[in-house]
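[job 0412] stage=complex_fold ligand=protoporphyrin IX containing FE status=START
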Amino acid sequence: MAHTTGYDRFSVWLHWLMAVLLLAEIALGLWMLGLPKGGGGLRAYWFNVHKSVGMLLGLLLLVRLAWMAVRPRVPAVPMAAAMRLLARAGHGLLYALMLLMPLSGFLGSVFSGYPIRFFGMQLPQLAQRWEPAKELLAGVHQWAAYALIALTALHVLAFLHHQFILKDGLILRMR
Ligand code: HEM
Ligand code: HEM
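[job 0412] stage=complex_fold status=DONE, emitting structure tokens
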């Protein structure tokens, strides 16, 4: 059965905008760690880009959550109750990680003591350098990133399963 009724325009737009930005942000985060320290500011430049895009993603998530609370109800996909529960849990976990990533990144950067810029605009310094907190949050940021990568892979696999095995046109709900 094809799914013709699904998410509203704004939810669809936010889903794809954030999907593209998130994948780029993950790639950037992994890549920038290999940049040499003291290499003429190149590392600092890309760290600043990463922090800015990360904070933007955090803001977009707040918009998305607020919209979720007021948007038209999305009809459930007709499938076994256990599968529906699994899909809901997966989406819930994706939302939790989309929140944890910018939070741990931001707080970790606050406790690193370096100034944080949002697309060039310097934010007020909220705390002094505090090594243990910075280390802990960097660990959370790293492991949450791995969890996000794994869960996104599962999410795309689920999409491929719907598209090519079940052939139920689930993607029509998200376009
Ligand atoms: C890159 C390829 C992607 C494809 C093909 C894809 C496809 C889809 C589809 C078809 C749905 C609708 C499922 C339904 O009707 O129940 C959906 C929902 C969702 N997707 Fe994706 N997605 C992709 C990337 C991502 C990424 C990178 C994230 C975030 C890390 C993400 C997070 C979500 C969430 C949270 C939902 C549930 C939306 C809600 O109910 O509020 N997706 N996706
Ligand atoms: C959805 C948002 C974000 C995603 C998906 C993301 C993803 C990543 C990834 C994949 C890495 C490399 C893995 C590692 O941590 O070792 C990384 C590192 C890093 N990220 Fe993010 N990030 C996000 C938001 C932020 C924000 C908002 C900040 C700061 C304002 C930030 C600051 C950092 C820093 C400083 C590193 C270098 C490693 C460290 O010291 O923890 N990130 N990020």
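The beta strands are 117-118, 121-122.
[job 0412] exit 0
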